[in-house]
Specification:
Distance between the termini: 28 Å
Number of strands: 5
Number of helices: 8
Number of domains: 1
């Protein structure tokens, strides 16, 4: 696996712009949401206290083509995923969590990128969370979850005894996560013939999305 994780991601021109580089501080207006979420996610609190939760904020160009936005969102998330893979083997790296925030986006812009990311990174032991502004949902216990004030994708190493239950609608992925180990695989190389990078992810988004649409499990 080759990674450009130490570089700022370079989203498709005209679709996304970095409005705040990576920080361990939650984006503006998100501090209360993050604090409340710690009571639902036993993983998040220790990650925050260890300074291992990162946030990169992007703005979506409202005039950009929707396909270009999807590709740029996917590219930003690939960058985050590869950064998590760099951190994971280090001390307390199991607590690494990278969040890519997309201002001006909703569920539509992150649905396909999320679906692709889950299938690409489950064998490498990464979980990919999808949250959109205003989303109303309940926990696996049935309790109302905090409503996200922004749209974002969250990537972290899998907690294998717990995480398969979050994938009950995709049982094959649940089984994959339960037994996954990061063997250093290059997740994009078999699909596009190029090494994994944010640039390659954006450039080949149409091909990658076509592959994802051919998967047997339902979206």
């Amino acid at each position: 696996m080759t990674s450009d994780a130490r570089m700022e991601p370079r989203p498709t021109a005209g679709a996304l712009r970095i409005t705040r580089p990576r920080s361990t501080e939650p984006p503006e207006g998100c501090a209360v949401y993050v604090d409340v979420t710690t009571s639902f996610c036993p993983y998040l609190g220790p990650s925050l206290r260890s300074g291992l939760t990162g946030w990169t904020v992007y703005g979506v160009d409202p005039d950009a083509d929707p396909v270009d936005v999807e590709g740029a969102v996917f590219a930003a998330a690939v960058h985050a995923a590869e950064f998590v893979r760099v951190l994971a083997p280090r001390s307390r790296g199991h607590l690494a969590c990278e969040n890519a925030v997309f201002l001006g986006a909703g569920r539509q812009e992150i649905d396909w990128p999320h679906w692709v990311l889950k299938h690409l990174y489950a064998p490498a032991g990464l979980m990919v969370g999808k949250f959109w502004k205003g989303e109303e949902d309940t926990s696996w216990k049935g309790d109302p979850l905090p409503v996200p004030p922004v749209t974002f994708l969250s990537l972290r190493p899998a907690v294998r005894p717990r995480d398969p239950r979050f994938l009950d609608s995709t049982p094959v992925l649940a089984d994959t996560i339960a037994t996954s180990r990061d063997d250093g695989r290059d997740v994009l190389l078999p699909l596009i013939g190029e090494q994994t990078s944010a640039t390659a992810a954006a450039t080949h988004w149409a091909t990658i999305k076509t592959w994802a649409a051919s998967l047997q499990e339902n979206r």
